[in-house]
Amino acid sequence: MERAYHKWFSKELERDMELLVWGHSGAPVIFFPTRSARFYDYEDWKIIEALRDKIESGQLQIFCVDSVDDESFYSKDAPSARIKRHLQYEKYILNEVIPLIRNLNPDQRLIAAGCSLGGYHAVNIAFKYPFIFTKVVGMSARYDLTISLPHFNNLFDGYFNEDIYFNMPNCYIPNIHDEQLLNQLRSLSIIIVIGKEDAFLENNKQLSLSLHEKGINHDFYEWDEEAHRPRYWRRMVQLYL
Which branch of life, at top level (predicted)? Predict the structure, then answer.
């Protein structure tokens, strides 16, 4: 498989950012890492290897981006600063990563994908910008980071503002009434995958119900067990990407 490493100083984040590109052509995929993980972890976990056939045959080109989760959602800064840093990361994806993709790959499709917190990143950015993305795959994710669950805290310590609201899909999807935006979401290919024993199961069911009530078609898959480990994700990417 073709493998390329990129690093540059991000103006949006005011720090160096790194990413890996796998493949030479096909539908480009922005692959968001798990909680506080790095751009090389999907390679280390053999998840990229699981996609070898699709990458080598030119069906997919994978862009494994880095995260700033330790500077945003998992930082010790004030909650308002956490969401602000997340929005800077979003601008990095929109204004720096996507232009790189468009420069390297003429395919006009664009897929967002991720596992665990990476699934949140993928679904949130695709739902906010459905006119940019053509497909999104969220695996083992939660879509409201303001709720507390066993072993998973409210990432804003009970603080809530407009920026947080507009970045929690389970909050904003039920309240979308703009028909143009709804039609854009309806044109998006949406795949949501969660384990039956995953702590985020009900959170995923809630998102699926909200999408259904808005007439937004999507595929919702429940896997046996928790299904929140690389060995499951290796199989998921083969099926859904």
Answer: Bacteria
Burial 62-97 (b: 16+ CB within 10 A, else e): bbbbbbbbebbbebeeebeebbebbebbbebbeebb
pTM of the predicted model as reported, rounded to 2 decimal places: 0.97
Eight-class DSSP state of 61: E
Contact 40, 73 (CB under 8 A): no
Which 3 state secondary structure label does DSSP give 23?
A: coil
Rounded Cα distance between 154 and 185, Å, is 27
CB 116, CB 151: distance < 8 Å? no
227: left (phi over 0), alpha (psi -120 to 50) or beta: left
Structural domains of the chain ordered from first start: 3-240 (3.40.50.1820)
Neighbour tally for 2: CB within 10 Å: 11
What is the C-alpha to C-alpha distance for residues 30 and 184, in angstroms, rounded to an integer? Answer: 19
Token readout for 18 is 């790194």
3-state helix vs strand vs coil in the chain, percent to 5: 40, 20, 40
**pLDDT tens figures, 105-131:** 999 999 999 999 999 999 999 999 999
| CB neighbourhood size of 215 (10 A) | 10
Residues 89, 4, 14: CA angle, nearest 5 degrees: 25
pLDDT for res 71: 97
Query: Of 190, 186, 172, whose CA–CA distance to 128 is shortest?
Result: 172
φ, ψ at 202 (rounded to 5°)? -65, -35
